[in-house]
Amino acid sequence: MKKTYGFLATTIIIAALLGGCSQQPAQTAETAATTPAETTAATTTAAPEPVSKLAEDGSMYALLSEGMPAFFEASDGWTNGSMFNVTWRGDNVTFEDGKMQLIIDNDKKPKGGIPYSGGEFRSKDFYGYGLYEVSMKPIKNDGVVSSFFTYTGPSDNNPWDEIDIEFLGKDTTIVQFNYFTDSKGGHEYIHELGFDAAEEFHTYGFKWAEDSITWYVDGEEVHKAEKKLPSTPSKIMMNAWCGTGVDGWLNAFTDGNLPLTAEYQWVRFTPEG
Prior knowledge:
17-stranded mixed sheet; mainly beta
């Protein structure tokens, strides 16, 4: 079941999603517990080996039970500002119990009036057209976003291009899709999942092509966009953060349950062709 939520003011969402694109400082240029091999043929070309790897054909697979892959890194020591009320900390990206955790917590060394810390996980390389997939379980808590997305922008000497899968902790029975092309957004879409994403792992993904972006949930196509699409190769990213000044979008953040943890099992990219 799916529908757009007309009550979300476009200007609020666009401003809020601007925070979804994580920028480094300028000086640094499923059904429950599904595994990649179980992903349906509707969204994948071949099952990868059960080990993290970068392949010669351009595909990528990160099995997060193995810990930090060599081709990913944790953001550390900066903040996105604006509506982000966290500083990214490398310690907020952990690998335990066969999964990766992105953590929101009180910051041990707060700076700039930002009281909280967040976790962000990003690829070192850039990826273009193809299928992007993740097995994840988001945070259920007012004022929080858990995400899977592609991003590039001025910090990479590129235009701001982005494709989003975002879970709003105020209601984890829905997922929000969006994209930006050269800093222009306004393509928000809310999909009703029919389950609570915070209760168990599911597979989410999108196929990015020159003429379309198609989003999937557990192998089923749920939304498609075909106008003014991004084209710049981007980094694969995941983050968990709490907002400030965007209560109309996320609800006011409540911190009585800290630390809060989003969990990820694996990430995969399959190039087009």
